[in-house]
Design brief:
By secondary structure, this protein is of the alpha/beta class. It is built from ten helices and eight strands. It is globular and about 50 Å long. The structure holds cytidine-5'-monophosphate.
Length: about 220
C-alpha cells in the first residue's frame, strides 16, 4: 500500500475537547495507529524546559529532538497511552500546564512546525491512522478520508481539566483553568501558521453534552458508513 492510500482519520479541536481520549479509543476500535500530535510539541517543550532554558537556540533544540524515537503505547485503562521517548516513559512530565504553555509558544514558530511535519507523516502506517491535534485535517493530512472538528464549551473544558487534575491530586480553581484554556485557545487560533480551525471538509461534533463513549460511537459510525 503506498503511503497516500493508507487511511487516515483526523480529529482536530481545542484543548480539553476530549480529542485525545476519543482518538485513542477510536484507534483501538478501528485497529489503527494513533498519533497525538500535541505530544510532539510537548516533547520539544520538555526538552527546552529541562535542558535548554538558558540557551535560546531553536535549531539546536530541533536537531536534538529529530532522532528521538516516539512511541504511543496503549495502556490497559481505556483511552490512555503511555508516551515513550527512546524507551523512557515521559507521560507525567508532559502533562504539566508549564509544558503545555511552552508547547503552545513553540508551536507558533514556522521552523518548529516544519521540523515536526515529517515526524507526523511517519505515523501513517498500515492498516491506518487516527491523528489528533490542531492542524491534522488542514495541514498535515489534507487528504484524510475522514475529518472531525471536535469542540466543547470553554466552561465544560475547564471542568474536565479540573476533574483530570483532581485525579492526579492537584487542585486548581475553575476560574484559573478557564483563563488558561481561553489563553491557549487564542494563541492556537490567532497564530499565522497553521491556526486552529476546522478543515473545509470536516464534520463538526460538539461534545459538551456527550459522554466519551457517545462521541466515539458517533465518529466510528461516520467512519464506517
Ligand atoms: O493537544 P495538546 O494540548 O497536547 O497540545 C499542546 C499544544 O501544542 C497546543 O496548545 C498547541 O499550541 C500545539 N499543537 C499545535 N498543533 C497540533 C497539536 C498541538 O500547534 N497539531
Amino acid at each position: 500500500m503506498s503511503e497516500a492510500t493508507i487511511p487516515v482519520v483526523t480529529i482536530d479541536g481545542p484543548a480539553g475537547s476530549g480529542k485525545g481520549t476519543i482518538a485513542i479509543q477510536l484507534a483501538k476500535q478501528l485497529g489503527y495507529h494513533y498519533l497525538g500530535s500535541g505530544t510532539l510539541y510537548r516533547i520539544l517543550a520538555l526538552y527546552k524546559l529541562q535542558r535548554l532554558r538558558e540557551v535560546d537556540n531553536l535549531q539546536a533544540l530541533l536537531d536534538e529532538c529529530e532522532p528521538l524515537r516516539i512511541v504511543f503505547k496503549p495502556m490497559q485503562e481505556e483511552g490512555v497511552v503511555q508516551v515513550l521517548v527512546d524507551d523512557e516513559d515521559v507521560s507525567d512530565a508532559l502533562r504539566t500546564e508549564e509544558c503545555a504553555k511552552e508547547a503552545s509558544q513553540l508551536a507558533v514558530r514556522p521552523q518548529v512546525r516544519e521540523a515536526l511535519l515529517k515526524k507526523q507523516l511517519g505515523f501513517r502506517m498500515t492498516p491506518g491512522l487516527v491523528a489528533e491535534g490542531r492542524d491534522m485535517g488542514t495541514v498535515v493530512f489534507p487528504d484524510a478520508g475522514h475529518k472531525i472538528y471536535l469542540t466543547a464549551s470553554a466552561e465544560e473544558r475547564a471542568r474536565r481539566r479540573q476533574k483530570q487534575l483532581r485525579k492526579q491530586g492537584i487542585s486548581a480553581t475553575l476560574d484559573r483553568l478557564l483563563a488558561e484554556i481561553r489563553a491557549r485557545d487564542s494563541l492556537d487560533k490567532e497564530r499565522p501558521v497553521s491556526p486552529l480551525r476546522p478543515a473545509a471538509d470536516a464534520v463538526r461534533v460538539d461534545s459538551t453534552d456527550l459522554s466519551i463513549v457517545q462521541v466515539v460511537e458517533h465518529i466510528a459510525a461516520l467512519v464506517q458508513r
